[in-house]
């Protein structure tokens, strides 16, 4: 029996049926936050997603969908997240070897000498934006320089939520505007325009969004009392210098990784190479740490081997006399990513059942009904992208599905495709990191060690972007339409 045959005789879900699993999921997740606090990632959110998926599955079966069809939808959904899962494992290994080798401590050490609390948030946003623009990857940026910037900011006495917000804001701006980014290529492909037309058109809304963000962080910096943090910096520098052999040669490792990504080496092999290079530099520069991390080995070879392996697969900590530094010098390795991977898999199960049962499509069609003016059409697109980030738990689906849905509507109403592609990025790409169970939100919160709801209020660029694109549409600013001649050619 073909997939098409298995759908014959199925009933389309009602709006109530389609919304019920979503409403129950939101209630369960809100209850988890209330009862479990910051520990929701340890299992309660995963169970909530499975329960909501079970309810969606019951509805789909009642509408005469066969279990085989639903299961195929689940497998397809999980398969789409496998790339993210593999990258997560590599980021865990990379974080471990970069700690053991002294790469991250060196970034923190030199960063503390250069930066001060007044300009730190502003500088962190710009640095993240430049690296992400060069690499085309917000994930790689946050997993490398982002971790170091978080350590510097915490050492300066800043709150981890606002530091993470500055890093994520810059990283997602750079990712969004980089021609090497996968989402930046995906959005115009879905809308039917070319890459550079898409990037140039995005600048109209993205420019004001990042400018407002930078102004907020700059003003915020001048409100931070610098004296208390400045008094701690010499002790922090002394503790790091006492534990590690800090020298500029350690920067070869991140430079090589960034160079590989700029040269379009895929993220997975680039991160693996970065992990192995970190292990090599640990052997060269930090052999004094092997006894602490590789305890139990007989002889130098076994101890070194065990230290490097442990740094890649499990939690390690480097102990100094400074408790602030000790908090910075800890990483979870690959094992530290398992709760996040568990969350991603359960989120994709929920999204797969919802899509296989036709519930996501039903809700999206209902949203389109309210799109009459230019502003309401763009707003409907933005809401749909946010909805798919919330329910399908993947930024790619939040671009692909609304792109397919709205493409004909935009064309029929005389709008050029770059309006759709810009809206997809302004609302689909940047809001994914704000959803705790989305692949992006789950990953970045784990990589940085900051809960999604802790950094969310400070991701000013990500919050402003969808409102900026909707505002431009309602005010009819830079809205591109086909000419009459173009319309005739399209009709022909």
Describe, in plain words, how this protein is organized in 3D.
The chain is mainly α and 492 residues long. It has a domain at 83-335. It is 75% helix and 1% strand. The protein has helices at 3-7, 15-36, 44-62, 67-80, 82-100, 103-114, 117-135, 138-155, 160-177, 182-191, 195-222, 227-243, 252-262, 267-285, 290-293, 299-313, 323-328, 338-356, 359-368, 374-391, 395-412, 417-429, 439-448, 452-455, 460-474, 484-491; strands at 316-317, 330-331. Strands 1-2 form a two-stranded antiparallel sheet. Helix 6 (103-114) crosses helix 8 and helix 18 (338-356) packs antiparallel against helix 23. The radius of gyration is 24 Å and the shape is globular. The mean pLDDT is 87.
Strand content: under 5%
So how many helices? 26
* SSE topology string: HHHHHHHHHHHHHHHHEHEHHHHHHHHH
- The termini sit apart by 39 Å
- Neighbour order of strands in the largest sheet: 1-2
Considering DSSP H and I runs of 4 or more, what fraction of the residues is helical? over 70%
Indicate the structural class: mainly alpha
Major beta sheet summary: 2 strands, antiparallel
Number of strands: 2
Question: Which stretches of 5+ consecutive residues score pLDDT under 50?
Answer: none
Alpha carbon gyration radius: 24 Å
């Amino acid at each position: 029996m073909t997939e098409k045959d298995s759908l014959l005789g199925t009933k389309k879900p009602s709006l109530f049926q389609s919304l019920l699993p979503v409403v129950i999921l939101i209630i369960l997740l809100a209850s988890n936050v209330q009862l479990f606090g910051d520990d929701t990632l340890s299992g309660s959110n995963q169970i909530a997603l499975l329960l909501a998926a079970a309810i969606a599955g019951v509805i789909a079966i009642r509408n005469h969908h066969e279990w085989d069809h639903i299961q195929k939808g689940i497998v397809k959904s999980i398969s789409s997240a496998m790339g993210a899962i593999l990258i997560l494992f590599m980021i865990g290994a990379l974080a471990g070897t970069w700690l053991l080798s002294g790469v991250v401590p060196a970034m923190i050490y030199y960063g503390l000498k250069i930066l001060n609390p007044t300009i730190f948030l502003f500088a962190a946003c710009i640095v993240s934006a430049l690296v992400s623009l060069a690499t085309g990857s917000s994930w790689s940026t946050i997993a490398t320089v982002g971790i170091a910037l978080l350590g510097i900011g915490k050492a300066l006495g800043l709150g981890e939520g606002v530091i993470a917000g500055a890093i994520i804001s810059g990283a997602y701006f750079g990712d969004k505007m980089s021609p090497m980014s996968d989402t930046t290529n995906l959005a115009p492909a879905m809308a039917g325009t070319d890459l550079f037309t898409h990037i140039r058109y995005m600048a109209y809304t993205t420019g004001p969004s990042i400018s407002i963000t930078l102004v907020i962080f700059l003003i915020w910096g001048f409100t931070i009392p610098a004296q208390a943090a400045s008094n701690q910096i010499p002790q922090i520098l002394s503790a790091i210098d006492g534990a590690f052999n800090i020298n500029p040669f350690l920067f070869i490792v991140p430079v090589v990784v960034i160079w590989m990504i700029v040269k379009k080496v895929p993220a997975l092999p680039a991160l693996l190479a970065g992990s192995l290079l970190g292990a090599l530099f640990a052997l060269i520069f930090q052999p004094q740490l092997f006894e602490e991390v590789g305890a139990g080995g007989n002889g130098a070879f076994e101890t070194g081997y065990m230290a490097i392996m442990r740094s890649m697969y499990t939690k390690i900590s480097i102990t100094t006399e400074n408790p602030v530094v000790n908090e910075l010098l800890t990483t979870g390795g690959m094992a530290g990513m398992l709760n996040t991977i568990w969350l991603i898999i359960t989120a994709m199960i929920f999204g797969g059942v919802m899509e296989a049962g036709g519930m996501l499509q039903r809700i999206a069609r209902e949203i389109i009904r309210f799109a009459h003016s230019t502003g309401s059409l763009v707003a409907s697109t933005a809401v749909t992208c946010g909805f798919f980030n919330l329910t399908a738990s993947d930024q790619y689906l939040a671009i692909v599905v609304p792109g397919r849905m709205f493409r004909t509507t935009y064309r029929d109403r005389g709008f050029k495709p770059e309006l759709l592609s810009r809206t997809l990025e302004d609302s689909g790409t940047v809001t994914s990191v704000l959803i705790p169970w989305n692949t992006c939100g789950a990953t970045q919160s784990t990589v940085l060690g900051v809960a999604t709801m802790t950094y969310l209020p400070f991701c000013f660029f990500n919050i402003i972007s969808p409102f900026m694109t909707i505002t431009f549409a309602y005010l009819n600013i830079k809205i591109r339409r086909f000419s009459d001649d173009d319309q005739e050619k399209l009709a022909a």
